[in-house]
Amino acid sequence: MATSSTDRIEKRIELRAPVARVWRALTHHEEFGQWFGVKIEQPFAPGARTRGHITHPGYEHLTMEVTVQAMENERRFSFHWHPYAVDPKIDYSKEPPTLVEFVLEKTPTGTVLLVTESGFDAIPLARRAEAFRMNEGGWTQQVKNIEAHVRSAA
Questions:
Q1: How far apart are the first and last CA of the chain?
Q2: How many independent structural domains does the chain possess?
Q3: pTM of the predicted model, to two decimals?
Q4: Starting from the edge strand earliest in sequence, which strands make up the sheet with 8-15, in order?
Q5: What CATH number does the domain containing 102 carry?
Q6: What does the pLDDT look like over 63-96, one tens digit per residue?
């Protein structure tokens, strides 16, 4: 199930894996990189900036940078980043970032994962629609990626 507005993307998926397994896939930097398609340089930590090189074909020249906002054990992981920051000639640091949140909820058969990215309305108008469109599609794929990852490594 997915919902969106102009400011917010939401993806919800039920994963047939325990909360602890999904939490590890989200917050262990190397494991996150496996399903997300990025080689993260250092562990995630609240308040810390973490970088990594994108490994997805066609995007290998890009670096992903996030600033971790919160890590509430087995419940919520969130970070700020610059959405669809793909043009090496643009300094995205001058733009407001969006907030990506992963919220976990235990179910009788596994874990519900809610992925939300919000703050698109603050992105400069010239690139807002494209950033939203690309991340909408990106999160659709990423929830499938984490589903396959936690299933294969359960």
A1: 23
A2: 1
A3: 0.93
A4: 2-4, 8-15, 110-118, 98-107, 76-81, 63-72, 49-54, 38-40
A5: 3.30.530.20
A6: 999 999 999 999 999 999 999 999 888 899 999 9
